Q: What sequence folds into this?
């Protein structure tokens, strides 16, 4: 699973720590998601989608 | 090691655990970024599985080696040595965890006859069989019952226990099916 969280986060001028606090996970999890090392649960994917104001399929792309 | 030293060791472990628990509670009250989340939970589960598997494998090797050496020295085989107890406990933990996990992930209420449920039934049967066999063997080792009687009981109780469990599971499934078919 690919995602564009890094570019969306940078576009909003947010740090990984900011995103982590907003969605209630650790910074390590955000790092792992950005590096395609971890696929988030649906719950977390929805939280990220709400945070960035985009639909899930625009943030996460199935390979 | 004397008993007082042993108690000191146990108290040290308990005190360490208490410190960790108090620290976690205080951190949670203060708020801030969480220490654990879905990813760390997944990692913890995997680490726990690997730890249990490694413990089981190491204990199994030690158990077999210990008993082979005992046999070579002309001593009696120690089935319930500390290694044996760890091996058996690990088997029970795995069986129990697998049965619970399958029960949780399978849609047991909607489809009582699906493949996953068959696995749960098999796991339950294995558990019942093992517990009965172990109980009889322990009673035999303890000298409370004759070894020959215990051997008969192991077979008898295992069959009886398995049949009971199977019947109970079937009754439950039939009831579930009747309820969902209404």
A:
């Amino acid at each position: 699973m690919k995602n564009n969280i890094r570019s969306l986060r940078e576009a909003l001028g947010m740090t990984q720590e900011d995103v982590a606090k907003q969605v209630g996970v650790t910074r390590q999890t955000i790092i792992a998601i950005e590096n395609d090392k971890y696929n988030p649960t649906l719950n977390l994917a929805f939280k990220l989608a709400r945070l960035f104001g985009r639909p899930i399929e625009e943030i996460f792309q199935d390979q | 090691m004397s008993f007082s030293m042993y108690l000191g060791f146990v108290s040290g472990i308990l005190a360490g655990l208490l410190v960790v628990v108090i620290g976690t509670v205080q951190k949670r009250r203060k708020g801030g970024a969480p220490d654990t989340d879905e990813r760390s939970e997944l990692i913890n589960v995997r680490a726990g599985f690997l730890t249990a598997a490694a413990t089981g494998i190491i204990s199994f090797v030690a158990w077999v080696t210990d008993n082979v050496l005992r046999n070579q020295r002309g001593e009696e085989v120690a089935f319930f040595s500390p290694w044996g107890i760890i091996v058996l406990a690990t088997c029970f933990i795995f069986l129990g965890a697998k049965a619970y996990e399958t029960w949780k992930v399978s849609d047991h209420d909607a489809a009582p006859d699906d493949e996953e449920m068959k696995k749960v039934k098999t796991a339950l049967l294995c558990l019942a069989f093992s517990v009965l066999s172990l109980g009889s063997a322990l009673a035999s080792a303890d000298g409370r019952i004759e070894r020959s009687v215990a051997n008969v009981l192991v077979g008898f109780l295992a069959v009886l226990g398995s049949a009971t469990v199977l019947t109970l599971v079937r009754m439950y499934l039939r009831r579930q099916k009747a309820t969902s078919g209404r």
Q: What stands out?
A: The helical segments of chain B are 3-30, 38-72, 82-105, 115-141, 147-181. Residues 41 and 47 of chain B are 10 Å apart (CA to CA). DSSP finds five helices and no strands in chain B. Chain B touches chain A through eight residues (CB under 8 Å).
